Amino acid sequence: MHRVWAEIDKSAVRHNLAAIRQRVGDTRVMAVLKANAYGHGAVEMAKLLAAEGVDAIGVGDSGEALELRDAGITTPILIVGGIIPGEMPRVVANEIEVNLHTVQMAEELNAEAAKQQRSVRVHLKVDTGMGRLGMQPFEAVPFLHNLRRLRNLELVGMCTHFSLPYERNPAFTTRQIEHFNLAVEVAERLGYTGLTLHSSSSLAVFGRDDAYFNMVRTGVALWGLLPGDEHGNAEQLKPALQLKSRVLFLKDVPEGTPIGYSRTYYTPAPARIATLPVGYNDGYRTSLSNRAEVLLRGVRCPVVGRVSMDYTTVDVSLVPDAAVGDEVTLIGRDGEEEITLAEVARWADSIPYEILCGLGRRVARVYI
């Protein structure tokens, strides 16, 4: 029995992968499992998705890549972010693919690969408007010329990153696609053919079909989410995660009783207060204090008082038969009622990605 846990529905993940494949046709699919698979458990999700035949796995850094290799994942793994010199020896030794962002990075990686007498498969990241990682398109041209002298690097792909593919005005994303196409054309003229080309994240996969190239990078859609969706595409997907806790303690209190740190809430009438063993150390944020709701026996109950490190207090007066040990749903469905991740993110003044990635290590992952 767990105090706080995330139920993760594997059949929902399989359904979502099938929906993505139906959407993109013959285009290859990379499953992006960074940030512990957005809180869903990277190793377990990698095993599931590898068994489903995804073409590649994307991770945020070398630690995430090595965790999957150590778990026996043999699917091609690309570090979609950056790496630093100290990470290169194990990255090279474990045959992990790397996004290149600078000439210096390429030279250092090549030197490490030469030391190990290995070849490293690399992708060139082109910054077309994200402004974060990657070379500017004009920098890619001389780099591609010079790449030939780095004998231990094999260019197998090129990619870019859209800043917001769901905008009502698609002009900026269209310009990003045009700039990326120019860089790809230069690479092909220089003899780099058969490259894996990828630009579309989940939102672009469902938002526009002119940027699939020959591989797409899907992360959040695998978990049944499309934040910012205005076209009803999310209806094709199934949320994979529910967050739950249970009633640890019940107390009947009179009107005017202060609840929690700083006395941010006083009961306006006699109330029954339930204490849940979940708090901000588990990823249930303090910004949910006095704003969020949870489900107990299918009834919405308000969070009252300040969420603390280990505990959250809830007014369960509408559930007179509530009992210690009762299951409480923080995200998900109970009976006819549902608390969506989008609701929780809105109450927390956050975004769904941040809520998922913030689920702490005390939150047990239970796969069903």
Question: What's the helix and strand layout?
Answer:
Blueprint: E1 4-8, H1 10-24, E2 28-32, H2 34-38, H3 42-51, E3 56-59, H4 62-70, E4 77-79, H5 88-93, E5 97-100, H6 103-115, E6 120-125, H7 137-147, E7 153-159, H8 171-189, E8 196-198, H9 202-207, E9 215-218, E10 241-246, E11 249-253, E12 258-259, E13 265-266, E14 271-276, E15 293-296, E16 299-302, E17 312-315, E18 327-334, E19 337-339, H10 341-347, H11 352-357, E20 364-367
Parallel strand pairs: 1-20, 2-3, 2-9, 3-4, 4-5, 5-6, 6-7, 7-8
Antiparallel strand pairs: 1-10, 10-18, 11-14, 12-13, 14-17, 15-16, 15-18, 18-19
The CATH superfamily of the largest domain is identified as Alanine racemase
Q: What do we call the CATH topology of the largest domain? A: TIM Barrel
Strand order of the largest sheet: 8-7-6-5-4-3-2-9
Kindly report how far apart the N and C termini lie. Answer: 15 Å
- The CATH architecture of the largest domain is Alpha-Beta Barrel
Strand count = 20
Give the rounded overall mean pLDDT.
Answer: 94
Percentage of residues assigned to helices = 25-40%
Number of helices: 11
User: What general outline do the C-alpha atoms trace?
Assistant: elongated
Stretches with pLDDT under 50, minimum 5 residues: none
Give the radius of gyration.
Answer: 24 Å
Structural class: alpha/beta
The main sheet comes to: 8 strands, parallel
Strand content: 15-25%
CATH uppermost class of the largest domain? Alpha Beta
The total domain count is 2
